[in-house]
Amino acid sequence: MAITGGEYGRMAKKASPPTKKIKNGSLAFLIGGFICAFGEGMGMVYEKIGLDADEVRLMIPVTLIVITAILTAFGVFDNIAYYAGAGTIVPITGFANSVVSPAMEFQSEGRILGTGANMFRIAGPVLVYGTLAAVIYGAIYYMFLR
Hints:
- By secondary structure, this protein is mainly alpha-helical.
- Helices cover 78% and strands 0% of the residues.
- It is extended.
């Protein structure tokens, strides 16, 4: 007996638990907002210790990336992401997690073939296509808006 696409869709919908959109959206908003507020707080701290505006703009993402990498290495960031959902993906912390997670997974295979080779498994395509898109957009901007 063959199942049609419509029948399969109804069966899958019936078997799937309902999502808690309000709760999930609220947690993503609150935790993502906390991450961004933490970054702003770090910016204020960096200004207080005497860094100029350009250095502060560089240090905020570096700080968030390092903290996320450390939390990912100890398995804490995955627990935060479980509850926060997209709240941890949108800021730069999601990128840092996507680089460190595969590296940690293959750590047992050694530093070169394990950690090094798998570090950019998820983030690599984002870097490649992001760079390619930037070149294309830059060329279009140069040709039409100069």
